[in-house]
């Protein structure tokens, strides 16, 4: 299992058609992907198995064939549940794909309010209502088009995205002036600040106190806050991120294991090997020999 987390900065698709399709599979009880966020919008579809998906401070149990919409900037993670393996597809696309060329009524009345979270959207698509079945059908059509790429597939995909949004908005509630999102937004921004710090400073020595000071909390309060938001202890999360960076370096470079351990914030090679084995189920040397293809969590 390869895990990449935090804010994603890579371009999905290309500037003229900013959309990409990603797939991933993991074993029973594994993490599909850790907490991260990106500016792009996302449609996540469970292909097989069962997963617990976090979107900001809410959790959703997704079964095979179900999907969830994740707005730009929302923190999200996913973990497999139940017995057996779990796999999913993710359609990730930039806001520019759905923006109008000129400011018009669809942009004013629908796209802008959706992006700015003016509505409480029914983001979990279970297929239990006719409109949900229609939305899931459009998502499955997009999946097929991304693979087959027939003539004018870009135009058809864009049309189906508009259909999905029209269904979401038609079944949404307008947010009150004061909403739970407003109450939670402060917590989410504090968490993003911590995650961004980890991303920028993982190679340096980071203490629990360093992380707790970012949102202005005591260490005890911060640990409770972080565990409630991420479902993982802060230092466990830090080690997990460091190991994901180390795995990528082992996979794609010829650098010595000891140099990689130092580069990813481990000042003790023995501890690095022990931690790496805990998350990756093999030693760094075994991982290099296997040349295992990492699961592309960083694109989700």
UniProtKB/TrEMBL annotation:
Keywords recorded for this protein, A-Z: DNA-binding, Transcription, Transcription regulation
Q: Does the keyword Transcription regulation belong to this entry? A: yes
KW 4Fe-4S (keyword) present: no
Q: Which GO terms describe its molecular function?
A: DNA-binding transcription factor activity; sequence-specific DNA binding
**Which Pfam families does the annotation name?**
AraC_binding, HTH_18
Query: Which superkingdom is the protein from?
Result: Bacteria
- Span of domain HTH araC/xylS-type: 192-290
Q: InterPro entries per the record?
A: AraC-bd, Homeodomain-like_sf, HTH-like, HTH_AraC, HTH_AraC-typ_CS, RmlC-like_jellyroll, Tscrpt_reg_AraC-type_HTH
Name listed for the protein in its UniProt record: AraC-like DNA-binding protein
**What is the scientific name of the source organism?**
Anaerobacterium chartisolvens
Q: What is the lineage of its organism?
A: Bacteria, Bacillati, Bacillota, Clostridia, Eubacteriales
């Amino acid at each position: 299992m390869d895990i990449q987390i935090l804010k994603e900065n890579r371009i999905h698709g290309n500037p003229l058609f900013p959309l990409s399709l990603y797939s991933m599979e993991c074993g029973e009880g594994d993490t599909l992907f850790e907490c991260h966020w990106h500016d792009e919008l996302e449609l996540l579809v469970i292909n097989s198995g069962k997963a617990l998906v976090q979107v900001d401070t809410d959790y959703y149990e997704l079964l095979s064939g179900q999907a969830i919409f994740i707005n730009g900037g929302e923190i999200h993670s996913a973990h497999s549940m139940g017995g057996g393996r779990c796999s999913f597809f993710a359609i990730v696309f930039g806001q520019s794909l759905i923006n109008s060329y000129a400011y018009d009524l669809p942009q004013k009345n629908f796209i802008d309010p959706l992006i700015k979270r003016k509505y409480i959207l029914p983001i979990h698509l279970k297929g239990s209502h006719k409109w949900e079945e229609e939305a899931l059908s459009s998502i499955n059509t997009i999946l097929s088009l991304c693979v087959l790429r027939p003539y004018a597939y870009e135009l058809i995909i864009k049309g189906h995205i508009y259909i999905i949004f029209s269904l979401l908005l038609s079944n949404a509630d307008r947010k009150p002036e004061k909403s739970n999102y407003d109450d939670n937004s402060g917590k989410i921004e504090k968490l993003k600040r911590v995650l961004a710090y980890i991303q920028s400073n993982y190679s340096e020595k980071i203490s629990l106190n360093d992380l707790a000071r970012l949102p202005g909390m005591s260490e005890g309060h911060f640990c409770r806050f972080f565990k409630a938001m991420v479902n993982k202890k802060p230092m466990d999360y830090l080690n997990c991120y460091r190991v994901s960076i180390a795995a990528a370096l082992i996979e794609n470079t010829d650098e010595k294991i000891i140099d990689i351990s130092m580069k990813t914030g481990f000042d003790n090679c023995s501890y690095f090997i022990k931690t790496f084995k805990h998350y990756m189920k093999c030693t760094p040397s075994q991982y290099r020999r296997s040349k295992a293809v990492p699961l592309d969590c960083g694109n989700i």
